[in-house]
Amino acid sequence: MTLRIRESEPLASRTTLELGGPARFFAEVASLAEIEEAVRFARERGLRLGILGGGSNLLVADEGFDGLVAAISSRGRTSKPGPDGAVLVRAEAGESWDELVGWTVAQGWQGLECLSGIPGLVGSTPVQNVGAYGQEVADTIVEVEAYDRERGERRLLARAECGFGYRDSSLKRAGGRFVVSAVTFALRPGAPAPIRYGELQRTLGVAEERDLARVREVVLQLRRGKSMVHDASDPNRRSAGSFFTNPIVEASVADEVARRSGEASMPRWPQPDGRAKLAAGWLIERAGIVKGLREGHVGVSSAHALALVHHGGGTTRELLALADRVVGAVEQRFGVRLEREPVMLG
């Protein structure tokens, strides 16, 4: 075995929330072969296997994780010409997501610029179908390389096999069956950046929407204003970003929410299937949960109601209790139940 297995490894410092207990066993995996080794180590000992990326979308239980945590650390990216003038960019799962985005923007390759500033690693992006400011990774993903724990083999999953949906994928629904090792994206050299998100369009102005570097700059600016860029000097820094997904509901439910709110301008986005997507942050504030609310060691971000924060010295239990309070307030006020976005480990 080439894996270096450590015991009682602290996990809190490996997450952006800085919460949770240790892993019973821990190993860094830098290749597909090492992923296979980690899977085998856990299986032979009857252990659960947890996958750790950048820790930006992860809740670790206070008791920690009684199994093996495999931290993805593979690095590398390549590019080559693709069909119809595209460039195919392949990135290892352990690559920093924002570094990859910055690099593609510097090359003049359109497709990822609106996803600037999102913390975490490349490997987690197809699982969550990461999206922001009118873009999703599903828009550009061509292929996902993964280790299939059920079949015990390497798989190349085409985009259609990934079953992408809003903050969702077949990889996510498979419940840990697939461990992503690399992702390939198709980007467009010299193409304009289509601006679909109203806030971004208003900030950019029509004349500037073709400049990828400018789009990235403005996205980072907007995210910083909402404490959605990890910054050690930000009082809201211990966060998992958006803690809840925007609910997608039947049109009749959206109408009822608007009636209860008394606001005709309630934000809502029609979906292809006739349903409507609502703004979770808007619902939270209208339910009486204010930005900057603090309960002990945890609270609501002072910059964005959609983010829950840890102020230091707290526990995962405290954060989950606050999350339950937020969910209950929105459900009581509007009859809509919010769903957590971060993944629970332990």
Topology:
Layout: E1 6-9, E2 23-29, H1 32-44, E3 48-52, E4 58-60, E5 65-72, E6 77-81, E7 87-92, H2 97-107, E8 109-110, H3 125-128, E9 131-132, E10 135-136, E11 141-148, E12 153-158, H4 170-173, E13 178-189, H5 198-204, H6 212-225, E14 248-249, H7 251-261, E15 268-270, E16 276-278, H8 280-286, E17 294-295, E18 298-300, E19 308-310, H9 316-334, E20 343-345
Element pattern in H and E: EEHEEEEEHEHEEEEHEHHEHEEHEEEHE
Distance between the termini: 26 Å
Instruction: Summarize model confidence as the mean pLDDT.
Output: 94
Total strand count, please?
Answer: 20
Number of alpha- plus pi-helical segments: 9
Largest sheet: 6 strands, antiparallel
pLDDT < 50 runs, ≥5 residues? none
Secondary-structure content class? alpha+beta
Q: Level of helix content?
A: 25-40%
What general outline do the C-alpha atoms trace? globular
Compute the gyration radius: what is it? 20 Å
Strand coverage percent: 25-35%
Q: In words, what does this structure look like?
A:
It is a single chain. This protein has 9 helices and 20 strands. By secondary structure, it is α+β, with helices and mostly antiparallel strands. The strands form 6 sheets. Strands 6, 7, 8, 11, 12 and 13 form a 6-stranded antiparallel beta sheet that branches. Strands 1-2-5-3 form a 4-stranded mixed beta sheet, covered by helices on one side. It has a 3-stranded antiparallel beta sheet with strand order 14-16-15. A hairpin with a 5-residue loop joins strand 15 (268-270) and strand 16. The longest helix has 19 residues, at 316-334. The chain is globular and about 65 Å long.
